[in-house]
Structures are given as C-alpha cells and as structure tokens.
C-alpha cells in the first residue's frame, strides 16, 4: 500500500506543470512555516508535507484540497481523491492565490513599478511571478493576514475590480481571528470580567496602592504637608470622577477614599 501511495504522488508530480507546482508550494507556505522559495518540484513539496504528517497514505485530503484550489480537478477525479470538510489551506492563502489568478502580465508589470521603491531591484526581475511577489512582500513584512494595506493600495491602483476579494476576506476573516472564529482581543476582556480570580487580584492591587498612599502621607514631614495639600487639591476633582477605581472599604468614608484617590494620582500610583 505504501508503494501505491508513492506511485500516486509520482503520477501527480509528472502531471503538474511548473506553474502548478508553484501554486501548490504557495498554498502550503503557512503549513510549512518557512521559506518555500527553494522548493522546486512537487516531489520536494510532498516530502516536506509527509515529514509534517500533513500528507500520508491514510490522510490524502490535503492533496485533494490543493489540487482543487489549483484548478486541477481532473487529477482529483482520476485519482479518486476526496477532500474532508475541514480545510487545511488558510483562507488568507486562498485569497492571495485567487488574486494572482486574475492579475494579468500587464498588471504585474504595473505592480512591479509601484513596488520599485519598496523592494530591491533584483527581487523585481522579469521572471518573478505574482505569487513570488506576494512571498517576497511577506518576507519583507509588508504583507500578512493582518497587514493588507500595501496589497489593497496596489490592487486598487492597478486592478480595482479585484479589491472586493480583499474586502470579502476581511469581512469573513478579520485581523486577529483565531481558528475558533473568535477574536482574541474581543474575548479576553469578557473572560477577565467574569473571572473571580481576576477580581481578587484587582482588589488586592488596589489595597496595596491604598497602603502606599497612607505610608507616603504618614511619612511626609509637616513642612511638606502644604505642597502635598496643593497636589491633592488639584487632583481631588478628578479623583471624584474615578471613585469606581477605588471604592472605599467598610471602615473608610467616601471622603477619605476620594482623598486617597487624589493622593494616588498625584504620586503616580494610578491614572
């Protein structure tokens, strides 16, 4: 069975054109997690995917997905490959590939001209493809799932009709979206507010800051009380608005709490 699997991969390798191989390598860039510019053949790509257990005799779904995205459905039918419901190629990578498919040779020349001040001249050689250009922008940290500004600018200038592909991607897969479909920044604050441990830690920090203020006031000499009083007076009105940061403990009045709030702000212990 292992030999039959290798024979199938070899058959795919022989059936793919140079452009097909470049497409598959580009689509696997996120999975491989490294520079893919040195992968020249489908056999090299398959070896690396096998090493990562992304492509095995018992798991051929990735191969089917890659061939479908690369518009080689004929090979999928010939080899009776099936794709699972779970996709391994990222939506970001598919979006870039879709853009590249619709960028003409003349469009690519215009894009190279626009990027001539941003990328080294040797990187803009005549033989570089659109996919290769995207990879170079990623290496220069000018393109990623959360850095689409440069891509939007050049697409809008050269082929504005393709901008909708980027817009649709951003609407479905906004920056910071995790595999669960939830944004890290949008989930974390809610989790903190609902976490009892967070409330305890927050309360203890506030108590420590109160102690710090009391110690400073108690250690201040009478001759410095006037200066401290001026700072407290200047901050007292602001502290009144910030009472929710330091609600008074049972043994302390609201007026005393406001005074400590003002002292804390004057001394830089809290905003």
Give structural notes:
Keywords: Apoptosis, Repeat. This is DED domain-containing protein. One of its GO terms (biological process) is apoptotic process. Residues 4-81, 91-168 form the DED domain. This protein is an all-alpha fold. The protein has 15 helices and no strands. It has helices spanning 2-15, 18-27, 29-32, 42-51, 61-69, 73-78, 91-101, 105-114, 130-139, 149-158, 163-172, 184-194, 196-219, 225-241, 254-266. The longest helix is centred in the C-terminal third of the chain and has 24 residues, at 196-219. The protein starts with a helix and ends in a 5-residue tail after the last helix.
In short:
This protein is mainly α. The chain contains 15 helices and no strands.
């Amino acid at each position: 069975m292992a030999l039959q699997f290798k024979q199938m991969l070899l058959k795919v390798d022989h059936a793919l054109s140079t452009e097909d191989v470049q497409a598959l390598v580009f689509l696997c860039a996120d999975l491989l997690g490294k520079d893919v510019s040195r992968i020249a053949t489908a056999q090299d790509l398959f070896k690396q995917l096998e090493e990562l257990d992304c492509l095995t005799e018992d798991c051929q779904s990735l191969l089917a997905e890659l061939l479908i995205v690369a518009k080689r459905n004929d090979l999928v039918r010939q080899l009776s490959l099936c794709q699972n419901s779970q996709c391994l190629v990222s939506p970001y990578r598919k979006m870039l590939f879709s853009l590249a498919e619709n960028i003409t040779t003349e469009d690519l020349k215009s894009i190279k001209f626009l990027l001539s001040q941003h990328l080294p001249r040797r990187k803009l050689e005549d033989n570089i493809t659109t996919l290769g250009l995207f990879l170079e922008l990623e290496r220069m940290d000018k393109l990623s799932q959360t850095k689409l500004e440069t891509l939007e600018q050049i697409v809008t200038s050269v082929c504005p009709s393709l901008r909708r592909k980027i817009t649709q991607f951003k609407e479905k897969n906004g920056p910071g979206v995790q595999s669960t479909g939830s944004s890290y920044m949008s989930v974390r604050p809610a989790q903190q507010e609902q976490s009892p441990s967070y409330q305890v830690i927050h309360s203890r920090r506030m108590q420590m800051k109160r102690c710090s203020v009391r110690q400073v006031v108690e250690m201040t000499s009478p001759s410095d009380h006037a200066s401290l009083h001026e700072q407290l007076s200047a901050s007292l009105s602001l502290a009144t608005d910030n009472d929710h940061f330091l609600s008074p403990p049972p043994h302390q009045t609201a007026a005393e709490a406001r005074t400590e709030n003002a002292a804390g702000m004057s001394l830089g212990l809290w905003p």
